[in-house]
Specification:
The chain is α+β, with helices and mostly antiparallel strands. It contains eight helices and eleven strands. Helix content is 34%, strand content 27%. The strands form two sheets. It has a seven-stranded mixed sheet with strand order 1-2-3-4-5-7-6, sandwiched between helices. A four-stranded mixed sheet has the order 8-9-11-10, sandwiched between helices. Helix 7 packs across helix 8. The longest helix is centred in the last third of the chain and has 20 residues.
């Protein structure tokens, strides 16, 4: 595996690039994944001002890719980042955040300042990348966003509820985060240490009111894919408790502006604030 400084980033440009990108999609989401972005769409995306780019080893092997489309909503241009994947063998190189930063460079050069994408709120690795490394924020919760459209090993057993994350790539907040690096997680833990917890088996029950304090913690599994194998019923209980909490707090206009693991790494929490 190449070192951190040996990886190059560039748009997909050859037949072999596109074919390698398709294979990486199947490697990431399963051989039966039905929503593969085909070669023709990867090519057209770039012609239409979108992004189809990869991270490459010195030997030309693709290590990761990012794909997104640019459009207009309510008269404002924005970019929808559709897919990002990193080869499991290359996940110690920080390629998820580096691909996003390369995508950001390409979009800023076009004058685009808002990027959105979906991710599963139960995936701790993605929550850490999106909130702590990039400075993105969950803006909307959507139930079963890909129901009937997506067949992925990662979704089996827990459905396809998603956060829509908003990344304001030219904002002061994001510029500071990218300049300063991830926040001090011990400081975040101290900030939320007395906040009530929403979690299966802890509280509140399905019929009980959710906590109304200014700060609230919403727990997710440390590794939802492993939990599905060990106890799929508990994984589904996490889906139900987080769905209820996030819909409620976002509906109140609160911010989901923090994410952290406990020092032992066994428990993970989103921090919700007024």
């Amino acid at each position: 595996m190449p070192g951190h400084d040996q990886v190059s980033f560039r748009p997909l440009s050859s037949q072999s690039d596109y074919e390698a990108c398709i294979e990486l999609q199947r490697k990431t989401w399963g051989r039966d994944f039905s929503d593969v972005v085909p070669l023709s769409i990867l090519k057209i995306t770039q012609k239409a001002g979108g992004v189809a780019a990869g991270a490459f080893a010195p030997d030309g092997r693709i290590l990761g890719f990012v794909h997104g489309l640019t459009g207009v909503r309510d008269g404002q241009v924005f970019h929808w980042s559709h897919m990002l994947a990193v080869d499991p063998d290359a996940r110690d190189l920080g390629l998820g955040s580096r691909l996003k930063l390369y995508q950001r460079e390409l979009l800023l050069a076009q004058g685009i300042e808002r990027v959105e994408w979906t991710y599963d709120p139960l995936e701790a690795r993605n929550a850490h990348l999106n909130l702590n490394h990039l400075g993105a924020r969950p803006a909307e919760y959507v139930r079963n966003m890909y129901e009937g459209e997506l067949w992925s090993d990662l979704a089996k057993g827990i459905g396809t509820d998603r956060f829509i994350a908003a990344w304001l790539i030219a904002s002061d907040e994001v510029v500071r985060r990218l300049a300063d690096g991830p926040p001090d997680l011990s400081e975040i833990r101290r900030r939320f240490e007395d906040a009530p917890i929403v979690s299966p088996g802890i509280g509140p029950g399905e019929d009980a009111p959710l906590p109304g304090e200014p700060l609230v913690r919403v727990e997710i599994p440390a590794n939802v894919q492993a939990l599905k194998t060990e106890n799929v019923d508990l994984a589904r209980a996490y889906r139900a408790s987080t769905r209820r909490a996030f819909e409620h707090y976002l509906g109140e206009g609160r911010r989901i502006d923090a994410f952290y693991r406990d020092p032992d790494g066994e428990r993970c929490f989103y921090g919700v604030s007024q």
